[in-house]
Every structure is written in C-alpha cells, then in structure tokens.
Specification:
The structure is a single chain. The protein is α+β, with helices and mostly antiparallel strands. The chain has a five-stranded antiparallel sheet. A hairpin with an 8-residue loop joins β1 and β2.
C-alpha cells in the first residue's frame, strides 16, 4: 500500500488547504459543497423565474431508460454542476485506500509530465477525498466546445468526479457517446448527465 501522506518526492504532505490552493492557482476548478452552500449556490439551476432547459440522464445501468429532465436556468453560466452535485453525493461507502493511492499517483505523474512547475505535489488520502466530495462533486467534461459553427453552444458530460474511486460501475452508453464525439478510451463510472450551455 502506498503512503498517501507523502508527496511524489517522498516529502511530508502539505495540508489539504495548501493542496487546494495549489490546484486552484494552476487553473483547476474545484467546486466544494461547503463553498456552494456558503455562496447560495447549493442547488443552483432552480432559480425562480429562470427559463426552463432540458438535459439528459444516462444511467450506468443500461437496463434503465435514458431520461430527459428539466430545470430552471441560472442567472448566468452553467447551472448543471451546482444542480447535479448532490446527485453524486456520498452513498456511505468508504473509498478504497489502494485505489485512491494508485489513481492519485497516476494523476500526479501526469501533472508533472504535463509541465508541472516543480512544486511539491502531494497525493490526497482516501479520507480527505471522501470528506471533500461528501456533498457530491460534479465534473463537467466537454464533448463539444462552443464555436461559431454550433452557435457558441458547449455540450458537456456531467459526471461524478470520483465515480471510479467510489466503485461505481462503468457507463457504456456514456462512453459510446464520448467516443462518437471523438473522445476515445475514456472510462466513465456511474450515472452521467448531458447538457448544453451557451458560452
């Protein structure tokens, strides 16, 4: 088992707050449930008086039907991450330490190869990840970027950011959709939602 309290170089880990600050300073958008609640966006997307929009739910269980859902739009920006975060809330199962260590090490290595600035990166523990994702963390994964040809509409998959770490089953229909959009080789775990947003 890997010691997740050590960084890539074997140094003592930094605090969770320092890790979060590092990620944000490098352009990573992190939407924490506590911050969502404090900012009044706890259930973003159900703004009274907003116009209605449709989005699609693709269950991981291919025996369940794909459904079209509706919600009120947010005053600005993408309403779905705030609206869907609670759909990915912790279901009470503990994250597996070995899986977290393996996946974290792989991602940290990719970050360093991808041009990391040499700062010490620290792998989070399973307990830290579980605490941070307790209220649900929704990741918006682009499958069509906005441009003039599509009327500046972005199309995104909304997934459980730690679905694989939670042991969610793979979603073959969402993976097929991503592949059809040119994103081959993705492993998508758990239920997925699809929506579009004007950029």
């Amino acid at each position: 088992m890997t010691d997740t309290n050590k960084d890539v170089q074997g140094e003592t880990a930094t605090s969770p707050e320092e890790r979060l600050a590092y990620l944000r300073s490098h352009g990573v958008e992190v939407d924490l449930p506590a911050e969502r609640a404090a900012s009044g966006k706890a259930t973003g997307g159900n703004t009274p008086g907003g116009s209605m929009f449709a989005y699609v739910h693709i269950p991981a269980d291919d025996k369940q039907s794909v459904k079209t859902l509706e919600a009120n739009s947010a005053p600005s920006g993408d309403a779905l991450p705030g609206l869907l975060g609670p759909c990915f809330a912790d279901d009470g199962g503990a994250l597996d330490e070995d899986t977290v260590a393996r996946e974290s090490a792989q991602r940290l290595k990719s970050m360093m190869i991808g041009g990391g600035d040499g700062a010490q990166l620290t792998a989070p523990s399973a307990a830290t990840l579980q605490q941070q994702a307790m209220g649900g963390v929704c990741e918006a994964y682009p499958i069509a970027r906005p441009d003039a040809c599509n009327g500046w509409q972005a199309v995104r998959l909304y997934i459980d950011e730690i679905g694989a770490l939670r042991g969610r089953p793979r979603n073959s229909r969402a993976e097929a959709l991503a592949a059809a959009a040119g994103l081959t080789g993705l492993s998508i775990h758990g239920d997925v939602y699809v929506g579009r947003c004007k950029a």
